[in-house]
Amino acid sequence: MTNYHVVKPHLDMAAGVRVRFDYRRIPGEAEPDYEGGEWLDIDPAWEIPFSPYSQADIDMVGDPDESELDFALLKLNRRVGDETPFKEDKKRGWLDFSQPPPLPAMEAPIFIVQHPGVDPEKRPPLQMPLKLASATPGFIRANGNGTRLIYGTSTKKGSSGSPVFDDKLKPVALHHNGGKIKPDQPSLVENNRGIPLHKIYRALDESVREKLVPPA
Question: Total domain count for the chain?
Fold first, then answer.
């Protein structure tokens, strides 16, 4: 799962989308090879469920509609959760999205696992290896109609689509933006926002939710 605005140009050509896992720096080793590793294709037969973003996300006026959840649910061409990552002895596993996750507790820590972007004029590659961001207190509140979560955890540019976890490391949201949309409003940098997963779950067609079974 990622944001709609991340894959918007590719929704009509899923065969051209590839996904990479395990792009991370192993302690004591050099930076990982950005071009190396295995890239996975998207299932070409999968009709990608998605929801657009809102004008309210751009001008920060009002609340996004229930139909404006800025997500896209991709389906890979194989079950990577059953595979063992390089230099590890356990299978990758799965995050449980078989039920709508509850909201985190107020002021509870929020953790975001991100792949920030890098300025291509300063340093290749375009994305950084896996980074963890956290804040305590983390969760601040939901917006007016509950279509966005607002938290204090700051992310770097390029982290859209990152998973947001609560203090029990349960996924609760899909990171959406840093709140700093308009350059003349720098105070919004602390207004980090994510899409609550329970909203995304309920927005999915029943035929799609049936495929979101608990991890075995």
Answer: 1
Do the domain assignments include residue 88? yes
Whether the CB-CB separation of 179 and 192 falls below 8 Å is answered with yes
Q: Residue 214 falls within a domain, yes or no?
A: no
3-state DSSP: the chain helix, strand, coil percent, rounded to 5?
15, 20, 60
> Which residues are registered as beta bridge partners of 164?
112, 173
**Within a domain: 215:** no
Give the chain's end-to-end CA distance (angstroms, integer).
20
Query: What b/e readout covers 170-197, taking b as 16+ CB neighbours within 10 angstroms?
Result: ebbbbbbbbbbeeeeeeebebbbbbbbb
Which domain CATH number covers 114?
2.40.10.10
Q: What is this structure's pTM? A: 0.87
63: domain range?
4-209
Q: What is the pLDDT of residues 123-171, one digit of tens each?
A: 677 777 788 888 888 999 999 999 999 998 888 787 889 999 999 999 9
User: How many Cβ atoms sit within 10 Å of the Cβ of residue 162?
Assistant: 23
Helix (H, G, I), strand (E, B) or coil at 178: coil
- Does residue 86 fall inside a structural domain? yes
